[in-house]
Amino acid sequence: MRILGISAYYHDSAAALIEDGRIIAAAQEERFSRRKHDPRFPARAIAACLDLARCDLAAVDFVVFYDKPWLKFERMLETYLAVAPRGLTSFLAAMPPWIGEKLNLRSALEKELRKLSDRVPPLLFSEHHQAHAASAFYPSPFERAAVLCLDGVGEWATTSLWLGEGNRLTPQWEIDFPHSIGLLYSAFTYYLGFKVNSGEYKVMGLAPYGEPRYAQRIFDHLIDLKPDGTFRLDPRYFNYLTGLTMTNRRFDELFGGPPRGPDDPLTQREMDLARSIQAVTEEVVLRLARTAHRELGADYLCLAGGVALNCVANGRVLREGPFKDLWTQPAAGDAGGAIGAALIAWHLYGDAPRSARACDAMSGALLGPEFSSDEIRAALDALGASYECLGETELIARTAALLAEGKVIGWFQGRMEFGPRALGARSILGDPRRPEMQSVMNLKIKHRESFRPFAPAVLLERVSDYFDLDPPSPYMAIVASVREERRIAPDGLEPDLFGIDRLKIARSSIPAVTHVDYSARIQTVDGVTNPRFHALLARFDALTGCAVLVNTSFNERGEPIVCSPAEAYRCFMRTEIDYLVAGDFICAKDRQSNARAAEFLAERFEPD
Description:
By secondary structure, the protein is α/β, with parallel strands linked by helices.
């Protein structure tokens, strides 16, 4: 039986296909349209999933959408009526897409699906938080677990607790809109000058530079947090109920000024605000996790929803919470709802059992398209690339040696990752021992803010040699500290430094992946899930004595992670990446045509 899950029309649309309960393929539409966080119907993602399963839509038994639009519309109408006559501007802006498409979603979905096949499978709908919960529990390695979902808002729920047992997923309780820890965090994202639904990572990365000076002010005025982790927000400080922005003038007065402009310089105030909302969020998540454990008596915790991508909070739950282990859906945001929706149909509607497993069912999140050697060669030839084709042993040895020399590698291998993070298939790699590597990759390659940290990829069998972490962390979902014996005490000049200058102070033997608070967002790599990436790390370790690499996503600022060999080559040519290693092919920057490089640099990126 094949079931296709779809998430769409809000942000991060995606498709996922399961066969007899096994996740065969999953992909986000942005990777094909090249429009970051693309919310449109995921036609190309669906086509990619069907292609990977070697079937067409007519061979699919059910299509499941991850949301119930009528419930969401009910929430919007009740909200606007509750605040009327305020909110008229927001109401008028929100209604056209609902009247035109979202309210008639079944018809809209069937229309789009008919473009793919004359036969449209039966269409089912799950609830938003139900899809989140299913995406977290069913692929997890746990037979019984508490499941905590936290995001901005689904239909009504913003926070929900579930009990997962066998193939059953039972709701316990929920916190409803407008009380939302996700929207509170997004309000600060907006106030700090970053884009909502994509800039939350920046707030998390900025937080270690500050002190939680405003945390008590947040508790006193914005959020009434109970000992059990439940909470209520004071709507008087927010504009998302009645306007087109996240915060209002009362919020500005509380924190001493208007929102920061996107191009305004970052000051200590912004750092302190980021640290404060991060501290508040961690406290909320910790209290909720403890309540979940107390109420359900489960030894394990599963997490999903956009807030579950806050890997700093996850790390604290793992270290300080009562659970033996936790598992976070790697595509914890709306994209992962496509997987959850499909699994609901299989396990809940179909009552199919879950099979016992020693590890999770996400296959390392390597669920997207892959390209054969012939396809990669054809793409490189069409672009006029100069390359060598090497056997795997020589390719791994050459790449490891280049990394040890300080070269930056664009690494394009196997199936594309599902979710927001590159995990060794569409990655940019560097030597973590070099303090300058962080600034080189941020400013010259990623073209992004200098304060943002990079993640370490580490051999699973060596993780405890470098970090205060024992369990696997294959999806960069956990932040942990660099081990004490690998740290270097900063000199006395640090208080006078800011931003990238503070990061230039080596804090450990792997400074390029050690943040200013000695933390790191860790990816463990095993030889079963991603054997070629594991082999590269092992070779680099043998060569240098270091079992860690810098791993960041293969894209420029503002673009989705690359999907195809052509996109990888273009990104390689537009940045200061030294070598592209795509499949069995290696391209050296200094051997590419200068004229062709100028053409790529002159191209204006135009998403479809």
